[in-house]
Amino acid sequence: MRSQTGATMSSGKGSMYSILVRQKLNTKSSAEAKLVGVDDAMPMALWTRYFLKTQGYKAANNKMYQDNMSSMLMEKNGRASSGKQTRHINMRCFFVADRIRSQEVSLEHCPTDEMVADCFTKPLQGMTFCKFRKAMLNLDD
């Protein structure tokens, strides 16, 4: 089975770019699925950074939030965190790890209850859905 990647990018408040895509490869665990998700979302974040820099704006402090600590370790450490189970996704680890090492992006942990992009991949109800919708659309209370 293939997972789905949901991501949203903001510049301050509101969402300026959002994606929902079915992943192109099968994964064996949720950590691998999250790693593939970061690899799917990172090109647009990097393109936006480069575009802003060429326009003369300062594009610093680019953060990617995740709620899976295992995938964050694989992304930060690259091959050092790869083992028998994750050999098939090494190239994705290296790409993300290289971008973190060059400080183009940084990773931060975000609790699942605050992960705005979850509204693309999970059936949310009630207050959680309303909270995430307000965050993405930059709506007032």
Topology overview:
Elements: E1 4-9, E2 17-22, H1 30-54, E3 63-66, H2 69-77, H3 90-101, E4 106-109, H4 118-121, H5 126-137
Parallel strand pairs: 3-4
Antiparallel strand pairs: 1-2
Helix pairs in contact: 1-2, 1-3, 2-3
Number of domains: 1
Strand order of the largest sheet: 1-2
Shape designation: globular
Number of DSSP helical runs? 5
Low-pLDDT ranges: none
- Beta strand %: 5-15%
What's the number of extended β-strand segments?
4
**Element string (H = helix, E = strand):** EEHEHHEHH
Give the averaged pLDDT, no decimals: 82
- Fraction of helical residues: 40-55%
Largest sheet: 2 strands, antiparallel
Structural class: alpha+beta
For the record, give the distance between the C-alpha atoms at the N and C termini, rounded to a whole number.
39 Å
Q: Radius of gyration, rounded?
A: 15 Å
Feature tags:
141 residues; two-stranded parallel ribbon; 5 helices; globular
